[in-house]
């Protein structure tokens, strides 16, 4: 039987089969995917085959997967999610204030994974005039760079229905700082999400691992599992995790910086001090936003000091 892994708690996987059943499945200890040393061989978002005794016997090739490296030196990774179509980054200009550095780091890592990002500005209802203006400027900046932006109030429901068509039939990773309203938005979009979550985890709470790593919430439970969209909520995880990259690659993760960098005099230009740097010129001429350039520099810095690992 084929299905989709929608939840991973410890060594258990909840599989939503193509005919709509929820199965608690396990994976044989020696089950490994070649080339990936991860603490979980199967991840939320994986399409799998479930055999006799609810053992997962096969994983379909992944379109992509998002990993988080372990903090320790075991070199093992944790796969947060597989087959992610897009990410929605929830931003609030106030309570809490989301920094542009945080946004830009998220966008850059999403570019590295080739996952498109939609920016959602939440809590419109509590913005004063200055904050409203700041939000407008941020939207203008990010739309110019090439990211789709939406304004909502998850609390009041304003603008939320307009997000639904963007989510249909897709696996969407929901991210954002703590307190920006991720849970509130999920509850708006999927009113029964909470009860559903509780039911599934109850089955696991009997002496099994109870830590939830990642979970996918079906957006339209009334649709077939194959056509529904899914939201991935990764508690406590704010970004895409770490990734290895070269200096030159970092430039390409900032879309507009990349465009200007094509005219730099030196092909190995880091856009920090080099003569004939088209990026520096563009920053000076305000074609590239100061905040974006600062974010680029901060990520370049991380790379020098090898501290990027701790950034997320
Ligand atoms: N005024 C207002 N408050 C909101 C809105 N959306 C969420 N909140 C409030 O903001 C607080 C945090 O919302 P949550 O949905 O718990 O935020 P979260 O992103 O899930 O937070 P974590 O679980 O810590 O990651 C709650 O008190 C919500 O009621 C909104 O649109 N307007
Ligand atoms: Zn340059």
Descriptive report:
The protein has 312 residues and is an alpha/beta fold. Helices cover 30% and strands 23% of the residues. It contains ten helices and 13 strands. The strands form two sheets. A five-stranded mixed β-barrel has the order 1-2-3-5-4. It is globular and about 65 Å long. The site of guanosine-5'-triphosphate (GTP) has 15 residues, from α4.
Jot down its keywords:
alpha/beta; Ribonucleotide Reductase Protein R1, domain 1; 5-stranded mixed β-barrel; two-stranded antiparallel sheet; 30% helix; disordered C terminus; binds guanosine-5'-triphosphate
What would the average pLDDT be, to the nearest integer? 85
Order of helices and strands: EEEEEEEEHEHEHEHHEEHHHHH
| Top-tier CATH class of the domain at 247-311 | Mainly Alpha
Number of helices: 10
CATH superfamily of the domain at 247-311: Probable gtpase engc, domain 3
Per the principal axes of the C-alpha atoms, what is the gross shape?
Answer: globular
């Amino acid at each position: 039987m084929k299905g989709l892994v929608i939840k991973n708690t410890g060594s258990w996987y909840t599989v939503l089969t193509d005919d709509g059943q929820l199965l608690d499945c396990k994976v044989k200890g020696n089950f490994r995917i070649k080339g990936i040393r991860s603490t979980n061989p199967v991840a939320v978002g994986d399409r799998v085959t479930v055999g006799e005794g609810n053992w997962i016997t096969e994983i379909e090739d992944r379109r992509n997967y998002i990993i988080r490296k372990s903090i320790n030196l075991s070199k093992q990774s944790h796969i947060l999610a597989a087959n992610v179509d897009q990410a929605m980054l929830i931003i609030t200009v106030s309570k809490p204030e989301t920094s542009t550095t945080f946004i830009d780091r998220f966008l850059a890592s999403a570019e590295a994974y080739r996952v498109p990002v939609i920016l959602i500005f939440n809590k419109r209802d509590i913005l004063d005039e200055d904050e409203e203006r700041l939000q407008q400027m941020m939207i203008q900046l990010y739309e110019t760079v090439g990211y789709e932006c939406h304004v909502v109030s998850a609390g009041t429901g304003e603008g939320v229905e307009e997000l639904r068509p963007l989510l249909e039939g897709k696996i969407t990773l929901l991210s954002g700082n703590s307190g920006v309203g991720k849970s509130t938005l999920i509850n708006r979009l999927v009113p029964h999400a909470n009860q559903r979550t509780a039911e599934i985890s109850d089955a696991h709470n009997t002496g099994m691992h109870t830590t939830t790593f990642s979970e996918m919430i079906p957006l339209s439970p009334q649709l077939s599992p194959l056509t529904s969209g899914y939201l991935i909520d990764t508690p406590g995880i704010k970004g895409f995790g770490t990734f290895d990259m070269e200096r030159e690659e970092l430039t390409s993760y900032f879309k507009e910086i990349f465009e200007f960098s094509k005219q730099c005099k030196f092909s190995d230009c880091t856009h920090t001090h080099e003569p004939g740097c088209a990026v520096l010129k563009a920053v000076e001429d305000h074609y590239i936003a100061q905040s974006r350039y600062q974010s680029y520099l901060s990520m370049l810095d991380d790379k020098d000091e090898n501290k990027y690992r701790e950034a997320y």
